[in-house]
Amino acid sequence: MKVAYWPGCVSRGFTPELHGSMALVAERLGIELVELDRANCCGAGVIAEHNQELVDTLNARTFALAQKTGLPMMNICSTCQGAQSECQERLDADSAYRAHINETLAAEGLSYEQGIDNKNFLWLLVEDYGLDKLKQQVTDPLEGLRVGPFYGCYVLRPKHRLGYDERPERDLYLEQVIEALGGEVVEYPGARKCCGFPIVTMNRDTSLRQAGTHVGDALDAGADCLVTPCPLCHLNLDMQQPEAAKVTGRDLGLAVLHLPQLVGLALGFKPKQLGMRKHIASTEWVEERLAAVAA
Amino acid sequence: MPDYTLKVRRYQPETGDGPYWQHYDVELDETLSVLDGLLQVRDREDGTLVVRCSCRAAICGSCGVKINGESTLACKTMIGEAHEFANRRNGGNQPIVVEPMGNMPVIKDLITDMESTHWTKIRRVTPWLLPEGEPPQREYVVPPESMIDVTQSMACIQCGACVSACLSMEADPDFVGPAALAKAYRFVGDPRDGQHEERLYDLAQDPHGIYDCTHCFSCIDACPKGVAPMDQIMRLRRLAGHEHEIDDVNNGHRHEVAFTKIIEKKGTLDESMLLQESYAPGVKGKLIPRAGALRGLLGSIPTALRGIRTGKMRSLPKLIPGVHGKLPGGDQKQVERIYAHAEEHREQLNLYIKGEEAEEDVPEETVEPEPDEEEDR
């Protein structure tokens, strides 16, 4: 399997462990990544606030670069998925609008053709790679590890834009992957709620209250860790966790793993190789749980 | 006819007991609604079950509830689909869970108090026209196309489903919220209103206003009328920031400007620069950061220090605002060119009005005529 790979900005910025762990895991799974290193930021919903034509053209450029490779496109960030799907919806809906955007791209010899196939790693893993094949690759099943899923809004809503009409099970994929890796799914209220990150610089209290509440609820439900396909959720749930604890007035301390890290553990990679020591919320408990089961 | 089980959250305050769950079996066609199921329970089994409804056709907005955790209208949700959803989400043969709406006090069973949250918030945005100058002798005349953008927000039936679904309001009950802000856009987008700037200034400066929305899309999925309240909030932000250049105390506009400029200069995001520029743009000269912004910047320092300690911020360039590299080769020039073009045109496509037009994308010459059409010729 070979994909045009868009890692997004944050996986190469504040969550470098995501970019690194994805590279290791992809190689082990036999997914060849052709990185779109000339592509630009998706706008993360912020540029859309500023100027719709601008964000649509920027993402049409990324899509066109991906289409030039002749490969399906894969991203590793829920926010990229949502922001890019929003632009794709407009670009695909109206031929005159698409032609207008393509006029701008023509100067660098690019053109976006209607209907790009752009999937988050989570979707690709379940729909194209397949859970059965994934199970066959597992060398170190995550037995006894209690994992809380945290999706991130941008791969859940709005349903009509994100392909839920054709694939209504997309909001269950994290649970399916956790089970395929041998882990145990923890149910808690926050799995499909918002981490609060987009307003952390505008209303810090509302933002961190959301993150802190979800982490606290997962702890109360007995989770050993959370797993998320969104690095921006990771920033609020992990990097800001000590601050979220202050806002919600309770002790937290729950490891938050990126999706490729959780997959990597089951494929036999060591936590350090997967960059788990770089997290703010300690991942030692996860290592202890897995070591205890292995012993 | 199929059987379904409804698991209803009951609350009868006069008994002095707290809320509890009650299961009811109903028998009705899969294409009938969850509301039909609730009314069957009330008619045949339990006259004490309290439900609010009127039109039963998604017009009046009275029967807002949560079905399987999702805020919606009971009359617009087919019972067969609700059953399938419950089974898929929870596995096995599951009951359909019906609860009163969220983010508002419950009066009795499925009836919530719309006054204390929903209507209070709607009144908060002055939901009537405030025209400037003397009223005209006859009706106000505006070009039809100038009203296009507000038609979507005018479709609201005040059911409260978006308020119930709002995840920001769960964390901040003072958030003005999706229904009221969509209503605000209905007047900010109306050419007859004379208070656009005042309305925008008010909602941008309020810490619980337009910059308190987290982009979670819950209101878009909950709305039974396609109003997409979050999209209206983004329109308010676009107008407040771009058209009226309102420099709000919440750093909402500064954050948007900083983000947009960084991508123009670098192509990908320089997070350190974003933090600095959102809180205190132009510390090197042009503007004086306000006290609140400085507090925000200082408040982010412990988080940054923790990042350095764990090696998360792996190298110095990631920490110094502005050192982050540009896109390679000529690619940054292409991004700059896209900016120049898009900032000049600022074209917007409104899918609510426009709709999908997939058929038109097939070039005419490739459409083969039907055999009988040929015969006609």
Keywords:
heterodimer, A: 295 residues, alpha/beta, 4-stranded parallel sheet, 13 helices, 8 strands, 10% strand, B: 377 residues, alpha+beta, 5-stranded mixed sheet, two-stranded antiparallel ribbon, 7 strands, 43% helix, disordered C terminus
Write up this protein:
- The complex is a heterodimer of chains A (295) and B (377).
- Chain A is 48% helix and 10% strand.
- By secondary structure, chain A is α/β, with parallel strands linked by helices.
- A four-stranded parallel beta sheet of chain A has the order 2-1-3-4, with helices on both faces. Chain A has a four-stranded parallel beta sheet with strand order 6-5-7-8, with helices on both faces.
- In chain A, helix 3 packs across helix 4 and helix 9 (204-220) packs across helix 11.
- Chain A is globular and about 60 Å long.
- Chain A starts with a strand and ends with a helix.
- The model of chain A has no long low-confidence stretch (mean pLDDT 96).
- Chain B is of the alpha+beta class and 377 residues long.
- Chain B is built from 18 helices and seven strands.
- Chain B has helices at 34-44, 79-90, 115-124, 148-154, 161-165, 167-171, 178-188, 196-205, 218-222, 229-243, 252-266, 271-279, 291-299, 301-310, 316-319, 331-345, 351-354, 371-376; strands at residues 3-10, 20-27, 64-67, 70-73, 96-99, 106-108, 111-112.
- In chain B, the strands form two sheets. Chain B has a five-stranded mixed beta sheet.
- The radius of gyration of chain B is 26 Å and the shape is globular.
- Chain B starts with a strand and ends with a helix.
- At the A-B interface, helix 2, helix 3, helix 4, helix 5 and helix 9 of A face helix 6, helix 9, helix 10, helix 11 and helix 12 of B.
